[in-house]
Design goal:
This protein is mainly α and 416 residues long. The protein is built from eleven helices and no strands. The radius of gyration is 24 Å and the shape is globular. It starts with 19 loop residues before the first helix and ends in a 23-residue tail after the last helix.
Length: 416
Amino acid sequence: MRGSIVGIEDGLTSPKPGSWHGMFLELLDNLYAACVIGPLVVGYWRGTWNLMGEYIYPSDLPTSLMISLALGVFGHLVFNIFQGPLRSHLNADKHRLVYYIASRLYTEIYGTVCVNTWRGGWEIINLYTTHNVLYVVVITLVCAVLLALLRGLRNITASPFVVVIDSRREYFDVPTYFKLSGSKQPGLYILDCMFSVLVIGSLVVFVWRGLWVLLDMELFPEDKALSAWASVLIGYGVTAVTFSLQPLMRWTCDRLTGIWRVIVADLFLFFSFIGTINVWRGVWQLLDHYFLPENRLLSNWITHVASLLLLILLNCSNSVLVRGVYIDAEEPAGQCVVFPVYYIRLFFQKERTKKQKKILESLNRVEFNNVVIVDKKPNTKVEQNHQINRNLDAVPLTIIDNPKSNGDHNTHENKQ
């Protein structure tokens, strides 16, 4: 879900200085991620989380949480281990309708698995630990440091700093920590999946839960509505600053190497995380407070169903999934601090590619026609057309077969 080098291989890196068109499209992408995708993802999680509490042993909270955690961990391991068979058997080129239905069903099931994992782990911690500020701060910092030492801190990133396009080629890909192959090393691959889910995933939950609980305790705890609005303002303020700082941070990381580049990238990612968690907390609690508070069950069902359907229609449904493990500062130079927020730019890239292909095809047809009449009119038209093709070769074309848009930097073609 976090994303990696999406956009780099498609020529969609940060716009060049003075490129107003590129800067405008980047701004639109950032606004789209923050104002559309982010709230929809939060709405889906809020509705699903609360529905699990309504239907899984609602009268016995400890049992409910243990079942959620077990379902979540087991489901994560299944989707990690069997991603290869899913990818090979659900092929959009062979059975488009079957693929589309099965892939969206996959998103709904996997999304429910993700929410259960977090609900089980999060609420069990709440149930059996104290809400002392110092205790929460220490545990949160220890888990964040452990993630940084494992070079996995970037896994705390989520919407609005990630937009996951439902790419056919990478729809079922779940990168693991050690990037082992299931076909070549099945035993080690299962251990890799378990480490990714049980260790990295648990540390991420601890960090998220710690900062969220601190906000609950310290940010207007006596007034939930005011606290929610404050989180929204802080979250979107930090989000705006973070997006604005990307060019500077990219310039900085371009000039750093080794451990210093990782440290700077991690600090920037953690700053963005403060914005992320405030956006999630604010939107979540505003929905609790204002959206059908007298009928919570209906409110939860609407946010669950409507959010997922809208994300499917927008081709961003996989944005709700928390899957895979990504390594800090893995990308070249300053790309490690560029957030994978590509939606509008990919659309324009596809349209530009279509036009380039049409130009190339038409020039090839002209050349073919001229070659046919070469005996009657030697040298003139053919030479002109060869010159056109030579000029075209000198222009870099960005040909995208299937743009990488889901943020999985290790596809089955180059990593698994």
